[in-house]
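Quick question, first post here. What does this chain look like in 3D?
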Amino acid sequence: MTRLVNSFSYSHSRGDLFRECPRRYWFARYGGWGGWERSADPVTREIYRLGKLSNRYLWTGHHVHDRVEGLIARIAEKRPLPPEEEERTALLDTLRREYAHSKKDRSGHNPPRKGFWGLLEHEGRDFSIPDADWKPLVERAGEALGGFYRSWVLPELVSADPGDILDRDAELRTISLDVDGFEVPVHMKIDLAYRLHDGTVRVVDWKTGRPGSPDEHEGQLALYAWYYAKARGIPLDRIRLGPVYLAHRPERVELQPVSPDTVDRVLGETRDTIREILALVDDPNLGVARKERFPVTVRSFHCRDCPFRPFCPDRPRPSVS
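> Answer (accepted):
Ran it through. Tokens below.
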């Protein structure tokens, strides 16, 4: 059997993780590599397991995205959508099953269920939250799913030709970025992109959290625009991008054009981040990197939801007043 190689690649979320804490990036990208193998040492195996856990926000967000992707698939096949309440009930059933599975066995030997390894909040006192906090979290997930039915996007999708739905969060897209002569694969998963009858392409990013600043997602969306321009040959002036806040204001259209200057700036920032990472990696082609070369964050705030805390004794501690 061919052995997998942890060759270097990049995504916007990996860049965010590295900027928050290089040490956490190392754990996620290198520390747990090979932890799925029977021959893995106990530390590597445990780091791998911890890296597979979901926190409550990523967990509910993932399942909302998954249900929405299924609904868009039905639209693309010209099949009627199920009633909103039916979808919300199915979402709730999934969340209940996975919550129970996660809480059942915290020994570290609880096998994954359909790719779900468990919730970080069930890992012990450092991560636990009050039981009362789970109900509003699940209710917000239901509201976000219902927001798709009320969103401005839905009527446009229903009237679109099936071939004009370009992406729907179903496939990982990869495009190469040259960084000082080193071709870096850049991965992205695009929630939704579709073409209108006038040739305009709309790129939508589903958000299940609260609305942020207008430019909060500029870097992520600019990379999407770059992908469509370079890989699909769509002129930038035909692309409109923006978030849809499903749980809060799904009816509001928040699409914006993207300029070549913005894309160039974001690509420059992306190259800078990649250079910073590569400066710490011993061999990007073979996936060799040493933990001691990746400094830990100086901000204890970033440690609160880090699953690798048990293996990071030099992490910063919150100040006690």
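The longest helix spans residues 56-76.
The chain has a mean pLDDT of 93.
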